């Protein structure tokens, strides 16, 4: 019976090791997918096309400004862990890099209204939590509307909760 229990224990241990390996592979795959979703390729291509157009029109200052913002945004995106938490103030600063690029692309068609309660600035949030939401608002509210759109971001502390609100006046 000791041999039976030893073999059974060994088989269970092997099964558990296999399960751990599968879970680690799934976690790595999920992290890669999360990195891909953090930066929409259309945003990158559109930004590079906008920079190229500015260069062709010999508008070097705006092209340089857009390139600098893109560089800072990409550096932040690639340097931070996808699962890291940052302060809301850091998240908003990173979001502003992204929004500045989009503002240069859409000009007066994109109107921003950012209101952050000073008490909310030190709250911890997942890194790049707002960027996909803003990207969605720009894609469906600004890009598809000739008249442009207003996007609002509000944050406040309500008791122990951080309330984040993102609005747009698009369809």
Spatial shape: elongated
The unreliable regions are: none
Specify the structural class: alpha+beta
Q: C-alpha Rg, in Å? A: 22 Å
User: What fraction strand?
Assistant: 15-25%
Widest beta sheet: strand line-up: 2-4-5
Helix amount: 55-70%
Cα separation of the termini: 71 Å
Number of helical stretches of at least 4 residues: 5
Largest sheet: 3 strands, mixed
Q: How confident overall, as mean pLDDT? A: 83
Give the number of DSSP strands. Answer: 5
Q: What string gives the helices and strands in order?
A: HHHEHEEHEE
Features:
3-stranded mixed sheet; single chain; two-stranded antiparallel ribbon; alpha+beta; 171 residues
Written description of the protein model:
Strand 4 (149-158) and strand 5 form a beta hairpin. Helix 2 runs antiparallel to helix 3 (60-79), helix 3 packs antiparallel against helix 4 and helix 4 runs parallel beside helix 5. Helices cover 61% and strands 18% of the residues. The chain is an alpha+beta fold.
């Amino acid at each position: 019976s000791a041999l039976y229990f030893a073999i059974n224990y060994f088989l269970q241990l092997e099964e558990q090791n296999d399960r751990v390996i599968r879970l680690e592979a799934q976690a790595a795959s999920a992290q890669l997918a999360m990195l891909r979703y953090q930066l929409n390729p259309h945003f990158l291509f559109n930004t590079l096309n906008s920079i190229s157009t500015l260069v062709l029109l010999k508008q070097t200052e705006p092209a340089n400004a857009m390139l600098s913002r893109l560089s800072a945004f990409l550096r932040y995106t690639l340097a931070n862990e996808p699962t890291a938490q940052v302060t809301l103030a850091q998240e908003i600063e990173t979001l502003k890099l992204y929004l500045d690029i989009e503002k240069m692309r859409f000009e007066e068609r994109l109107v921003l209204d950012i209101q952050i309660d000073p008490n909310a600035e030190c709250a911890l949030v997942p890194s790049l939590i707002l960027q996909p939401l803003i990207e969605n608002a720009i894609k469906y509210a600004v890009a598809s509307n000739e008249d442009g759109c207003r996007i609002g971001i509000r944050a406040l502390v309500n008791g122990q909760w951080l309330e984040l609100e993102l609005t747009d006046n698009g369809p």
